Every structure is written in structure tokens, then in C-alpha cells.
Amino acid sequence: MELAQRITGIKPSVTLAIAAMAKAMQQDGKDICSFSAGEPDFDTPEHIKDAAKQALDRGKTKYGAAAGEPQLREAIAHKLQRDNNLNYGAANILVTNGGKHSLYNLMVTLIDPGDEVIIPAPFWLSYPEMVKLAGGIPIIVDTDSSTDYKISPEALNAAITPKTKLFILNSPSNPSGVVYTRAELQALAKVIVDRDILVVSDEIYEKIIYDGVEQVSIGALGEDIFQRTIISNGFAKAYSMTGWRVGYLAAPVALIQAASALQGHSTSNVCTFAQYGAIAALEGSQDCMETMRRAFAQRRQVILERLQAIPGLTCAKPDGAFYLFINIGNTNIKSLDFCQQLLEQQQVATIPGQPFGADDHIRISYATDLITIEKGMDRLAKFVRSQI
Ligand code: GLU
To answer: Degrees (nearest 5) of the Cα angle 370, 170, 121?
Structure first.
């Protein structure tokens, strides 16, 4: 069977594949330490689950508006004003099937064949694939530890051509965990406005930040940049709701209307009763988020200390998200081989840097318990010792 051209060049999601493999191996009774997908190990907080259960009991089991339940769109707009200083109303919000779907809808709505989309590397591995699915051309701008894995305004400016439509910004970043400062964002915003391109700010990790760093939304830095900003976010990471699949896009009304039309012909509304859980997440106490954030902060400390004691591996201290992006260059093993051998020899599941645009790195998610972290680091140390 001949498949459509648009799908033939698309690679499967390595994060999902390795996470599924690790879960299957665990179910088979294997003693796997999984640091694979970025999935908080906490259950969804009770009050959020209760709200969804009550919604089921109240008959919220039918089709809803394709763009989302009006009450949830209102609650998201209110959250963006309250937390991010972004002046949106309900009409600026599209509720999507997770943060990933918000980005996919955006690409299909915005990108024409041949349009260029600038993506700093390392990047979340789904960005380039989504751009390609929409017919666009991902323009990868490399960064490394010498620039703190951040794109500079000069590098952004140099990458812009007459075909550039969009720049993808992800702060806190998956996989590097870096958080752009206000001054850095101001400098990037100036380039975006001067060169008249658009930016999508993926803020899915906004609540998972450490050591008092400030989380700034680029769209809040002035009216000119606000008009050129699209926000992508979701409930998965902040409220441990990965399986619920509720995310959102915030943007100028015309874009939201177009993306709603796309959604109306593709997925229709996001699971209706799940949206009521999301409303409770936004309107209820935010203490649950802080409890999880503190646990991640403690794990980050433990895992960093363990990792820095392993000769041959280097890793910068991340300011946000729950990943360590580890340079394995000294082992002279490419990341796919490294992860495969580590899994086979030590039953430790990690994610290779190659699909993130950094083949001399691996990614570890520390959204897992301390026992797994201690055991996994013992095994990683043993593996590295056997290689160098
Ligand atoms: N975004 C998470 C990760 O990078 C979940 C898996 C995925 O959707 O890629 O691990």
C-alpha cells in the first residue's frame, strides 16, 4: 500500500515508544528503572478526579462545543490573566486533546507548504515532525552548553528568511530544563517584532521551576509581541493529568476560530467530563502543584549529586521541568546505542538525545520516586564504568 507522502518521512515518537516498552517490561515482571517519558508519578489530585466523577454523574457525557466547554475557556482565560499577565478572553482559547494537540492544530492552521519554522536544538522531538506534517520546513538552530542551550537573539535573527513564519520557544525547556530570563526574552521579542514573525510559546512546564527563578511569558512583554504570540499549555505536567488529554491554545481570535473549525472536522470536543476536571484544577486550591514541585526539587538535588559523581558524564543544573540532559560525549557511544545497551545490560530506561537534535546526550526524567532514582543511578554508574 502506498502511504501519503506527508506521513512517510515522519518518525514515531521515541518518548512514547520507550515509555511503553519500559511499562510492558515492568508488567512482565522485569525490574526496570524507568526514566523515560516525562510523566509525573503522582496520581491526579482528588478534587480534580471528584469533579470529573461528578460531571459524569450530572450527564456531562455528550458532545460539547468543538472549541471547549465555555466554563473551561473562561477559566483558562482567567488563569492566563492571573498567572501570566496575558490579556485573553474566552474567545481567545481553544481546548485541545493535550498540549501536543494544541501545537499540531496550530501547525496545520498556520503553516503553508514551504513556510519555515525556527526551532532551537535541543528540542522536544515532536516539534519538527508536526511542522513537516503541516508541509513546513523545520529550521534547526543548534545551541550547546556553552550558550546554556539557549538561542541568542543574534542566532534567531540570522535564521530568519522571507519564508520564516514561526519561532518555537519552550521555556522551561524539554529536554534541557533551561528557563529564559526576562532580559533574554525581551531581546528575543525585539527580534520577533522587528522581523515581523510569530512565536509560539510552549509553557507546559511553567509551574515546575526551582531556586526561585522567574517564569515569564514572552507575550506579556508588550503589546507588539503579544499580538505575535501564541500560547500552548496543558494540564498534564502541572496537575499530573497526563492521561486526561486536556490542553489549550491561546491566540488572536481569528486564529482560534480557524483552529476550532479544524478541530470541528477532526476530533470534535475534548472528552467532556475530563474538561470538568480541568475546571476544578484551575479553580480549586493550587497547593497540590506546590507539593509536587517540592518533591521534584528534592529529587533534582539527589539525582544531580549522584550524576555528578559519575566520571565521564556531565550535566548542567536545570532551572525547570523534570529532566536532566546529560552529555555522554566522553563515552564515544551514540545516544541510541547508549540507551539500548543501558536498557539491555542494566534495565534502565532513558531517552536518547538523537531525536532531540543532540546525539551526544541522553535525557533522564526524574519525575519518579527516590528509590528508583538511587537504584537507577547505581546501575547507570556501573554501565558507564564498563564503557570508559
Ligand atoms: N512530553 C513528554 C516527554 O517528552 C511525554 C511524552 C511525549 O509526549 O513526548 O517525555
So the answer is: 95
The phi and psi torsions of 376 (rounded to 5 degrees) equal -65, -40
Domain 5-44+287-385 in CATH 3.90.1150.10: yes
As a whole number of angstroms, the distance between CA 87 and CA 92 comes to 9
Domain ranges of the chain: 5-44+287-385, 62-283
pLDDT 10s digits, 194-211? 999 999 999 999 999 999
Q: Is the CB of 102 under 6 A from ligand 1?
A: no
Instruction: Determine if ligand 1 sits within 6 Å of the CB of residue 16.
Output: yes
367 lines ligand 1 (CB under 6 A): no
| Rg (the chain; Cα; Å) | 21
Q: Is the CB of 38 under 6 A from ligand 1?
A: yes
Q: Is 185 exposed, middle or buried (0-12, 13-18, 19+ CB in 10 A)?
A: buried
Q: Which residue has the cell 537534535?
A: 357
222 C-alpha vs ligand 1 centroid, how far in Å?
31
pTM of the model: 0.97
Render pLDDT for 239-270 as a digit per residue (tens, 0 to 9): 999 999 999 999 999 999 999 999 999 999 99
Residue nearest to atom 3 of ligand 1 (CA): 38
Ranges assigned E (strand) in 72-156: 93-96, 116-121, 137-142
Cell 552548553, located at residue: 145
CATH number of 62-283: 3.40.640.10
Residue of 10, 11, 15 to mutate, ligand 1, most atoms within 8 A of C-beta? 15
